[in-house]
């Protein structure tokens, strides 16, 4: 399953956005209002939960300075990645696209597509407000 947010223009340089995203404590600022838990495990992992949803542990998978940050599920039960692609548009303006990639059976994909699409959209909107 592939879900992608629309490109979001952010009034910050690609370097500023990249540094914001690799500091996982900042993800709490991007989370939706219905977050019920956000906790840092270490510098490379955090756990979060939205009301009515199970806890998800995300960990750093890949990072390319000023260009891309990839987080992935720490559990093999729900294998997925969440990527942020950063493109500089001007000195103090960048475009960010969030992408979700996961391998799920058809029933699971049907159940989670709506909530994941909303979640990615909210992260993208909140990133645009930085």
Give structural notes:
Keywords: Glycosyltransferase, Transferase. It is a single chain. The protein is of the alpha+beta class and about 130 residues long. The chain contains three helices and eight strands. It has helices at about 15-20, 25-30, 105-130; strands at about 1-5, 10, 35-40, 45-50, 55-65, 70-75, 80-90, 95-100. Strands 1, 2, 3, 4, 5, 6, 7 and 8 form an eight-stranded antiparallel sheet that branches. The radius of gyration is 14 Å and the shape is globular.
Question: Any low-confidence stretches, pLDDT <50, length ≥5?
Answer: none
| Assembly annotation | single chain
CATH topology: Alpha-D-Glucose-1,6-Bisphosphate, Chain A, domain 4
What does the radius of gyration come to?
14 Å
Query: SS-based structural class?
Result: alpha+beta
Total beta-strand segments: 8
* Average pLDDT for all residues: 93
Q: Say which CATH homologous superfamily is assigned.
A: START domain
Number of helical runs?
3
Q: What is the straight-line distance between the termini?
A: 28 Å
CATH architecture group name = 2-Layer Sandwich
The level-1 CATH class: Alpha Beta
Strand content: 35-45%
User: What's the shape?
Assistant: globular
Q: Could you state the order of secondary-structure elements as H and E?
A: EEHHEEEEEEH
Percent helix:
25-40%
Keywords: Glycosyltransferase, Transferase
Protein name: Orotate phosphoribosyltransferase
InterPro entries: START-like_dom_sf (IPR023393)
GO molecular function, one term: glycosyltransferase activity
């Amino acid at each position: 399953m592939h879900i992608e947010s629309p490109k979001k223009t952010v009034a910050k340089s690609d370097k500023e956005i990249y540094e914001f995203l690799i500091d996982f404590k900042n993800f709490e600022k991007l989370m939706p209002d219905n977050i019920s838990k956000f906790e840092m495990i270490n510098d490379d992992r955090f756990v979060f939960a939205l009301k009515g949803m199970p806890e998800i542990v995300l960990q750093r998978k890949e990072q390319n300075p000023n260009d891309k940050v990839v987080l992935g599920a720490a559990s093999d039960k729900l294998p997925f990645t969440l990527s942020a692609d950063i493109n500089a548009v001007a000195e103090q303006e960048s475009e960010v696209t969030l992408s979700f990639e996961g391998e799920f059976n058809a029933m699971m994909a049907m159940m989670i597509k709506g909530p994941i699409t909303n979640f990615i959209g909210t992260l993208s909107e909140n990133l645009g407000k930085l």
